[in-house]
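User: I'm curious whether this sequence folds into something compact or stays loose and floppy. Could you predict its structure so I can see for myself?
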Amino acid sequence: MDNSIELLAPAKNKICALAAIDCGADAIYIAAENFGARKLAANSINDIKDVVDYAHKFSVKVYVTLNTILTNEELSQAQDLIYKLEKINVDALIIQDFGLLKLEHKIPFHASTQCDIRDLDKVKFLEQIGFERVVLARELSLKQIDEIKQKSNVELECFIHGALCVCYSGQCYLSQAIGNRSANRGECAQPCRKKYSLVDDKGNVIFKDKHLLALKDFNASKHIKELAQIGVKSFKIEGRLKDVNYVKNIVAYYRKLIDDLGLSKTSWGFCKIDFEPNPEKSFNRGFTDYFFDKRKACYTFDSVNSKGEFLGIIKTIGKDFFTIDAKISPQDGLWFENNSGCLINKVENNKIYPNKMPKLKIGMKVFRNFNSEFDKKLKTSKTKRKLYADIVFENGKISASDEYGHSAIVDFSPTETAQNQQKMIYNIEKSLKKSGDSVYEIRSVKINVQKVPFFPLSQLNELRRQLLTQLEKRKFSYGAKQEFKPVKLNKTLDYRANILNKKAEEFYIQCGCKIKEYAPESGTSLKNKCVMRTKHCLKFAAGLCQKNTTLFLIDEKNKKYPLKFDCSKCEMEIYF
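Assistant: Here's the prediction. I'll summarize afterward.
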C-alpha cells in the first residue's frame, strides 16, 4: 500500500508553478485558458506545457482546473481544451460539471470541492460513478474525514492552508444574486468580504458595519500528522490568485513540516531552501484550523486585510514616532489592533517613523503585515530543485544514472591517448561534475579506463550536455481509461445541483433524478431562495444560540437578507 502523501500547490501562472516545484510541491494545480473557477488566473497551453515538462522531470503532477459549470455551447470548447491538455500530458483535470463526464477523455477527472463534497453519501456516490479522487469540503472535522476514509476507497484531497470561502463550495449564490457574477462560473465578486450589520426583527442592532461573513485564513499545520494517519492522500494549499513570494513561502513551509514529520512524498528530488519559511510573514487574516476538532471563533469581523505576524506592544509615543521592542526595517508595513496601519519611512535609535502617524495608545498590539527584508529574501531566492546523478566514464562511452532508476549513455570514439594522463583525468572530472541548467546535481564521477583518451574541453562539455539531456527525458502515458457510469441517486434536484447544460441533465436523469430547475446562471430566479449555507453562524458569534431570535443581515446599500438557522447541524442560511 502506498502511504506517501502529496503536497499540492496553487499556481496563478507559470512563474508561480515553477517556484512551487522548486520549493518542494509534489503536484501543482493551475487553470487553462478557460473554465477555471478563478477567471483572473488563466494560462496558455504553451505555458502549461512548460510547467508539465519541468514538473514531470521530478514526477511532480500537474492538475488543470476545469471546475466551472458550462453552457451547452461551451461543452464543445471544453472538449477541444481536453484534447489539447492530453497532448501535453497533463496528469488530471479537476471538474465540477457532470456534463464533462459525457465527453471523450483519456485524462483522469478529480471531483472538485465545488461539487459540495461534505458527507459520506456524496463521497460514495462520486466513487461509485467513477471518480478516482474527491476534494473534500473545508468544513469537515477530523472525525468526519476519518469516517469517510474508513468507509470509502476513493483518494481524498483536503485543504490545509489558505483563504476560506464562508459558504460550502459550489453552493454560494450571493454574488450571482447581487450582481449577476457567478462563483460557479469563476466570477465571484466576494460579497463575503463586504461590511454588514446584524439586526433582529425588533430593529435592535447586534453588530454594526462589520465584516460579518469574513473568515480568518485556514492553517491546519498542527493536524498534518493526524490527516496522514487517517489516510488523506493530497494536502492542498489554496491560493491561485496569490503572488509568487506567497507560493514560495507557504510551499517551502509545508515541505519542511512534512519532511520533518518523516512522511514520504510522491515526487522526486530535493530542495535546498535558502530562506526560513514562515506563514505568519505572508498575507494572512489571522489563522484558524476551522472545524477540525471543535467549533471556535473563526471569523475576522474588524478587517479583511492582512494582519501578519505579532511583534509586540507600543512602548512609547512621540509627535511623529513610536517605539516597540522589535526589529523594524524601513518599508515594513504595520497593522495595529485598532484596525489602522502604516508604512515605515525610517528607523533611528529605536524610534520608528511612519509615513503617517496613526492614532496609537501605550500597550496597543502591533503586527507586521509586510516584512520588507523577508520579501527581498524571497525575491532573490536561488532555491532550486535537484536530483542526484552518478556518472561513469568508460572506454567508448559515458553513462549516467540517478537514484530513481533513470539512466542514459552517450558514445564517443577517441582518436588519441592523452599525453598528460593526470591532467586529462582532472579535466574529465571537472567537466562531468558540472550540471549546467539540468535538474541534476552530480554526486560522483568514476573513470574506468586504463589509458585516458584526449578530449578538447568543448567536446567533453557537449558530451555531458547530451548525457544529461537524455537522463532528463521521461516517458508518459495515461493509465486505464476512467469510466463514468450512472448509479441510482433518485433525488429531485433544484438550482443547487448547478445543472447548466443538457449533458449534465442527462447524466442525472440516468441516475434516476428529477430536474426541478436549472442553475441560477440559466436565468432561474433566486428571489426568496437560500443563496448561502455556511457553518459560520452569526447566532453563535453573537452569543444567541439558545434564543429564538429572528435575525437579518443588512448590507451597505441597506438591503435586508433574512437568516435561518439549522441548529441541529450548527449551520446558517442566508436568503435573498
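Summary: The first strand starts at residue 6 and ends at 11. The chain has a mean pLDDT of 95.
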